[in-house]
Structures are given as C-alpha cells and as structure tokens.
Amino acid sequence: MGIQRMDNVAIVVKDLDGAVDFFTELGMELEGRTPIEGTFADQTVGIDGIRSEIAVMRTPEGHGRVELTTYHSPDLITPDPLAPAPNTVGLHRIMFAVDDIDDTIARLRTQGAELLGEVANYENVYRLCYLRGPEGVIVALAEQIG
C-alpha cells in the first residue's frame, strides 16, 4: 500500500493573520481556520498542553495546501538565525507556479517579502526566483515562458 496524496505542508508562524494575508496575496484561498487543542493534539504532536490555531490555505485548483499554525501554548521556539540561508539542512522552500512572476513579486513585496537574489532565466523555459516570506519561509516562484 502506498500514499494516496501529499495533503499539506505545515508552517509554524508567530503572526497567523500576516501569514494568511501573504499566502492570500500569492493567490491561495483560505479553506478554513480553527483552534486546535486537546488530547488528540497532544498525542499527535508529542507535546502536552497544546493550544494552537491553524489556517489552511488552498491553491486555486484545490490540490495543494499549506497549513499555517501558531501556538498559544506552549510558547513558540524561535530558531537562531530566524532566516537561515537557502542551503541550510531541513525544509528548503515551497515552490509555486505563477502566471506572471513580476506581478507576483510586486504584490508579495507589499506583504514584506524580499527577493533573495534576482529573477533568473532557466534555458528560456522558466523564469525563477526565491523570496523570503513570513517568518523567514522561502517561497520559490516559477513562470513558464517556453
């Protein structure tokens, strides 16, 4: 028996509203938002006394999801450095295909996103870039041009 699908990628954030705004500006839709706490949460995550809130963001076609989570209890742990370099071991980035990379960058900059390098042309097939979004998360964008 194999997996059925990849359900979502979870990102822990301090500012849930700000992260929802960022991913909404990217073009995702808020699927739902709810508090999470109780025995099932403690058992699943392996931490006692969880009180958190999640917001599930869905891609326009409905297949991809990002689960944004903030913890009210226990306290959030902030990594050092908060915004690790792209070659740091661990979750690297989330990539999204976009229609217009320049417009997407401009809109995400209004949400505090910063371009890590520049928009690059890959063999006249894709324009690609990395942006640092909420809580230091790296978001990659790809626009097919050829």
Structure description:
The structure is a single chain. With 146 residues, the protein is of the alpha+beta class. Helix content is 18%, strand content 36%. The chain contains three helices and nine strands; from the N terminus they run βαβαβββαββββ. The chain has helices spanning 16-26, 39-45, 101-109, and strands at residues 9-12, 29-37, 51-58, 65-73, 94-97, 114-115, 120-122, 126-132, 138-144. The strands form two sheets. Strands 5, 6, 7, 8 and 9 form a five-stranded mixed beta sheet that branches. Strand 7 (120-122) and strand 8 (126-132) form a beta hairpin. The radius of gyration is 16 Å and the shape is globular.
Helix/sheet category: alpha+beta
Measured on Cα atoms, how large is the radius of gyration?
16 Å
Q: What is the H-and-E element order?
A: EHEHEEEHEEEE
Head-to-tail CA distance between termini: 38 Å
Overall outline: globular
Largest beta sheet, briefly? 5 strands, mixed
Portion in beta strands? 35-45%
- What is the number of strand segments? 9
The proportion of residues forming helix, as a percent range, comes to: 10-25%
